[in-house]
Design a protein that fits this description.
69 residues, mainly alpha
Length: 69
């Protein structure tokens, strides 16, 4: 957990702050969110491995947590 915290603080946060400083005023929330997930977390919306859930699974989350956007 400590290693993950250090990674987040020094790698991920610094990259995010660089983007915010460089693109201040030009990124809207949706564009920033897409950029963070695509380039920082490496989990773009079009990743075929995201959202894989067997049809007979029960998660107790509305719509199984799947967004239809």
């Amino acid at each position: 957990m400590a290693l993950d915290t250090v990674r987040n603080e020094y790698l991920l946060h610094s990259q995010l702050y660089q983007w915010l400083l460089r693109d201040s005023g030009t990124l809207n929330v949706d564009a920033l969110n897409d950029k963070v997930y695509t380039e920082l977390f490496l989990t773009p919306k079009n990743d075929p491995w995201l959202g894989l859930l067997p049809n007979d699974s029960y998660s107790a989350i509305d719509n199984d947590g799947i967004s239809q956007n």
